[in-house]
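Weekly puzzle thread! Below is a chain. First person to post its structure in C-alpha cell form gets bragging rights.
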Amino acid sequence: MVLQEEGFFSLAPEQQWLRLQDIKKKLEHPDYFIIRHHNSLALSLLNTGEVLRTENSPRKALTHFCQEYLQAGAYTQEKAKRQHQLQQHIAQAENYLIKTSAKLREIEQDQHYKEWADLLMANLHLSTDGEEKIAVSNFYHNNLPIEIKLKRELSLQKNAEVYYRKSKNQQIEINRLQKNIAEKEEEKRKTEAQLVSQLALPEKKEINTPLPYHEFTYRGYTIWVGRNAQANDVLTLKHTYKEDLWLHAKDVAGSHVVIKYQAGKPFPKEVIERAAQLAAYNSKRKTESLAPVAYTPKKYVRKRKGDPAGMVVVEREDVILVVPKLTTEN
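Winning reply:
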C-alpha cells in the first residue's frame, strides 16, 4: 500500500529497483515509527504518513503504540458517547416542547368557563331552582342559544363563581406551561451549544497527552481513578458529567474517582463499593483496615476559584465504609 501511494508502480524498472534496495537497507537496521495514516494510528517500519514518534527499540515502540492506541480509543469512545447523550437530551427536549405546546394551545383556545360565568352573571334574573342546565343567548357568538350545565343546589351566582374559579385555574395552568416551555427552550439552547462545542473537538486525541485517569471496569460499569492532584481537577471538571457518581476518601488527600453513568440505570451497590475501595486505596487511608469514602452525584461537586489542585467543595454526600483494595474483577 505504501509503495502504491508513492507511485512505485509507475516508476521505471531501474527506479523501482533502487527504491526496493533503499527499503531493504532501512529494514536491516530499522527504526520504528508510530504514525497516523489515513486518520488511523499505526506502527510502521517505514517513515510514511504523519510520524508522531520514532523509537529505535521495538519493545519501546510497541509499548508506546499500545498506550497511544488505547488512549485514542478511549477518547474517541467518550467523545461519541457524550455526543450521543447531548443529542438524546435535545431530542427529549424537542419532544417535551411539542407535547407541552400542544397542551398550552388547547387550554388557551378553550375559554368557555369564563364565557359561561359571564353569561350566568348576565342572566341572574332567570329562575333555575333545581335545574341542571339553563339555556341563554350567547352574546359572545351572535346571540346564538347555548345550554350551560348547573349544579342544582347552587344559585346562578354561585354557579358563575364555580366557573370563574375554573377559569382562574386555567390561567394558572397556562402560566405554568408557558414558564416550563421557556425553561425547556433555554435548556435546549444550552445543550445545543454544548453539542456544537463537542462536535468541534478534534477527532483524534493528541498523541503523548496522557488521560488524567486510570480506567477500571466492574460489572459492566466504567470507573475512572484520577492520577494525581492536577489530574483530579481535569478528571472532575473536564471529563465528568452531572449524572456520573463521584467518590473520594473522606477527609484525606487522595484520587477523585468517578463511576460513569449509564442512561436509565441506578448505580448498583456493589459497583459503588468497588469504586469506593479504589478511592480508599488511592488515598492516605490506603493502610487502614476500614476506610470511610464519600460519594455523591457529580452535580453536587464544584471547585472554588483559587483552591489548590484537587480540592473541591461537596454540597451533599453519602458515606460508605470499605476495605482499601486495588485488585479488581471484570
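Puzzle host: Confirmed. Bonus trivia for everyone else. The helical segments are 2-6, 13-28, 58-109, 112-122, 156-200, 229-238, 269-281.
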